[in-house]
Amino acid sequence: MKRKNWFFISALCALMSTSFVACDNDDDPIPTPSPTPETSEYTAGFYIINRGKSKSNNSCISYYDLTNKKITGHVFETVNGRKLGDSAQEFFQYGTKIYIPVYNSMIIEVVDAATLKSLKSIEPKDAGGNGAKPRAMTASGDYVYATLYNGYVARIDTTTLEIDKQVKVGLNPDKLSAQGDVLYTANSGGLNSPNYDKTVSVVDLNTFEVKRNVEVIINPTRVITDSEGDAYVISMGNYSKDPATLIPNTLQYFKKGSSEVKEIRTASVVSICNDTIYGVYKQYGATTYDFFTYDAKAEKMISEKFVTDETKINGDPQEIDVDPLTGNVYVSVGGKDVNGDMYIFSREGKLINKFDTDGLYPQGVLFVYKEQASEKE
Amino acid sequence: MLDMFVKKMLYLIGAWVFFAVVSYAQGIDTVSYHRLSGVEVVEKARPSVTREATPVQLMDRAGIERLGVQDLSEAVKRFSGVTVQDYGGIGGLKTVSVRSLGAKHTAVSYDGVTVTDAQSGQVDISRFSLDNVEMVSLSIGQADDIFQTARMYASAGALSIKTTKPVFSLSPLHLRAQVKAGSFGMVNPSLRYEQKLGNRWAASLYGDWQRADGNYPFTLVNGKLEEKKKRYNSDIETWRTELNVYGGFGKGGSLRLKGYYFDSERGLPGSVILYNDYAGERLWDKNGFAQAHYENRFNERFALQAQLKYNYAWTRHLDVDNKYEGGKQDDRYTQNEYYGSASALYTPLKYVSFSLTQDFFVNTLDNTLPECPFPTRYTSLTVLAGQYKNSRFTATASLLGTFITEKVKSGDMPADRKRLSPAVSASWRILADQNLRVRASYKDIFRVPTFNDMYYLRIGNTGLKPERATQYNLGLTWSGQPASYVRYLSVSADGYYNRVRDKIVALPTMFIWKMMNMGEVSITGIDVNVSTEIPVCNKIDVVLQGTYTWQRAIDITDEEAKNYRDQIPYTPKHSGTLSLSVENPWVNFSYSLTAVGDRYALPQNISDNLIKGYVEQGISVNREFKFYKCKLRLQGEIINLGNINYDVIQYYPMPGRSYRATVSFIM
């Protein structure tokens, strides 16, 4: 245990002067010190967030050092002396802070990006003063936004870390995405199964009001935006086991300002980096998967088979992250109530590395960059 | 005389040392052992149980009273080879798993008729009161009694509850009025009235009401933080009523009728979630059944019995949470069961008997969830059993035939199920003049997927196969009087191997969970039971009892999996109990201890999933006062004497030290 502490402290010291960034939040960079890594930098490592199993209070963050290929688990607990909570959904960096929606714990944990020290646990409340469950985060301008599973989006001031306003969207909003003055929420209605919601709310960030709802395939759970503000939406469909009635996991898109939705293809998880969409399709129960890339600007498929070697993914992909510096693709894969795995593919789609994430159901990574020079000393 | 006393003391010390070794072997750290070192009690393993060809353990009324056991789960925890899953508190779900096979493989019978829940497949034993109970027994594998319902053959283990049957000597009526009260606002008055009705008939009426706030304190450990907290939303209120009519027709046989009604409302505190104290779930249960049992032993050769039962179960589950549209989810479930059983016992020769048993039952489920398929399940169980039994040798063989067909109003219709399940057992007294027996048994059994497994919204899977369990047991038993100053000593040791195939588990698949036949478990274990009684002098009687279980239950589903050959969740390698009771004319006293080793909350055996072992102790004292024809009995208990903070199920903390007192008036 002592050794572990020492290792982590030294790792932290090494990180002091570095910055890290997640690829899919290089939005309007007002308080952001480094929206993209400098070319003089290299990827030193990355943090992994593990959601854990529901009701097990085992959400945790691991750090993977790419130089010595070592993982250090439970770094949030080591720094803060307490656990992160139950069912952390993702982590999201904006400027010098990382925001973590911890669903069952009903808090948004805000930590300092350089030290992981907790700055605040924001407790979202409904109108009646009861806690609400945060689901996902995004940001634009001076605000960070969180979906709350009771049907709202909360706006958080990045300096005071207070929720100053909430707007009602659809049922059980899941992931959300903002670009400039527009924000989209995927309203899943997941708890109303089989009567799922099927809307994406479009919120005007100038007024913080819902401008319109765009109808998509039932059970939308994820929305991402490209640099033009177009929305790419994944609907999970109805999970039917009967092929005749199955509505599969599907990727759709609509342009900013439009409500005309076009289907792209089947997909379960997608992510975007520099207007390239990386997507995986693995319908439940399936043992095989499709890994594709799509050009969001040209609106055309780049590759139907991104993974070019024979890599089998053992488990279910939960999240995809792309390192903008190297183009390497990180796939977080959940097991069957056992620790998850991280699969790292090169930009050519070859497996570089695969390792245990030291936690259950990993939900993505945040990259840590370092100056080349400092490392040579 | 002094010599005798020394001998007795030596024996007692010897017994202590034995239990100490057992306890040490459980891997409990020695410090806590020395602190607790007590000895033990119980009447459960009576000498007679050593004769059974499969392991049987029992606790009778005397044992229940001596140990101050107040609910069924406390009694069952004293048995070896058993894990009671306990979600904490009076209203917390409590289920029994025998030898790591899972609670769904355990049948629970109430006065001979199986209590079932076709929806969840497991019985919450917290709903039974022990006040009305004469005996609780647990048999593993196929019990020697071949004259019982077919359902009692259709499980890997059976927990039998027998209620008190009135026996009249002088007075034609008996009355027992009792009030129990305890920590966390628990109050439980009960009344039992027995009336003789002519020469052959009698009736008894039992009723009780219980309430508790249940908001007990606990310590939450979160990293380096330790926080004193309280459970909330743990209140419970329960009504129980039971009417029994016992009748005889002389040569026409005997009849027993029972009506039972249970009604409860409780808050569900849920698991402890860090940083979130909200708990908004409530549960309402209404369960009523009527059953009739008829038995006629025509002559030495031929006997018949038949039973009928109707069971109604209604549950309402309310979850108030702003995540739902409308701020709440309010579900109701109704289940009906119609059950009939007939059994014939034929004894053509002195040592040989055969039985043929036929059960038929229908189960229905109706709920308010969307897409409820309203399933109706028809089950037929047929058993043919044969037994040879003389004073030295017992051999039993049985074959159970199962046929199940199911109808649904919508959705997929599952295929019919047919299966033959054999069981064999034998017990042999090795020496003519010593009560040393060797026993061996084999049973192949399965459990059918529950309605939840098959139809639960989105998660259910109608394509499931039954989950199979194969059991092997080899044991030695000995009982006797090792010395003149020992009333009896009884020892049994059983080694076993179980294999579970096609285990039904919920597996995560891309964003949702699904029930699958995906699991294979290999279980190896040893159960040891020891009990002895020593009359220290003619006024003082000491009963000592101990159990020890070692289990290796490993997941062998997938060689590639990270939990391959890891101990399955919630299965301690070592566990055991000790008890000591001292009966005397002044104040009867008993001490009991339960020790459970380290367990894992999740499939992977890593430190993140570890739940620390614990030792829980309790003491009970009682005294009876007699005046005229009446008796007044006072009893008090301290539960969790060491005020140990422990979990049986992770994040469902158990109560700390608590107290209970009972005043009974018996006439």
UniProtKB/TrEMBL annotation, chain A:
InterPro entries registered for this protein in UniProt: DUF5074, Host-pathogen_enzymatic-act, Quino_amine_DH_bsu, WD40/YVTN_repeat-like_dom_sf
Signal peptide: 1-22
Hydrolase recorded as keyword: no
Keywords in alphabetical order: Signal
Keyword Cell membrane listed: no
Pfam families according to UniProt: DUF5074
PANTHER family tied to this protein: DIHYDRO-HEME D1 DEHYDROGENASE (PTHR47197:SF3), PROTEIN NIRF (PTHR47197)
Name under which the protein is recorded: 40-residue YVTN family beta-propeller repeat-containing protein
Organism name: Parabacteroides chinchillae
UniProtKB/TrEMBL annotation, chain B:
Ranges for domain TonB-dependent receptor plug: 53-143
GO biological process terms, semicolon-separated: siderophore transmembrane transport
Cited SUPFAM superfamilies: Porins
GO MF: siderophore uptake transmembrane transporter activity
Transport found in the keyword field: yes
Transport as UniProt keyword: yes
Assigned keywords, A-Z: Cell outer membrane, Membrane, Receptor, Signal, TonB box, Transmembrane, Transmembrane beta strand, Transport
Entry-linked InterPro entries: Beta-barrel_TonB (IPR000531), Beta-barrel_TonB_sf (IPR036942), Plug_dom (IPR012910), Plug_dom_sf (IPR037066), TonB-dep_rcpt-like (IPR039426)
Domain of life of the native organism: Bacteria
Coiled-coil stretches noted in the UniProt entry, renumbered to this chain: none
Domain (TonB-dependent receptor-like beta-barrel) ranges: 255-641
One of the Pfam families matching this protein, by short name: Plug
Record's GO cellular component terms: cell outer membrane
Protein's membrane topology: Multi-pass membrane protein
Localisation per UniProt entry: Cell outer membrane
Family: Belongs to the TonB-dependent receptor family.
Record-linked PANTHER family: HEMOGLOBIN AND HEMOGLOBIN-HAPTOGLOBIN-BINDING PROTEIN 1-RELATED, TONB-DEPENDENT OUTER MEMBRANE RECEPTOR
The protein's name: Outer membrane cobalamin receptor protein
Organism: Parabacteroides chinchillae
